[in-house]
Amino acid sequence: MSGHSKWSTIKHKKGAADARRGKLFGRLIRGIEAAARSGGPNPDANPTLADAVQKARDASVPKDNIERALKRAAGDSDGASYETVYYEGYAPGGVALYVECLTDNRNRAANDVRAAFKRHGGSLAEPGAVDYLFARAGVVLVNGAGTTEDDILLAGLDAGITDVGLEGDVYRVTTEPADLRAVRGALERGGLAVLSSESTMLPSAWVPVADETTARSVLRLVEALEDCDDVQNVYANFDIPDRILHAVA
Question: Which domain holds residue 239?
Answer without folding.
Answer: 83-132+205-248
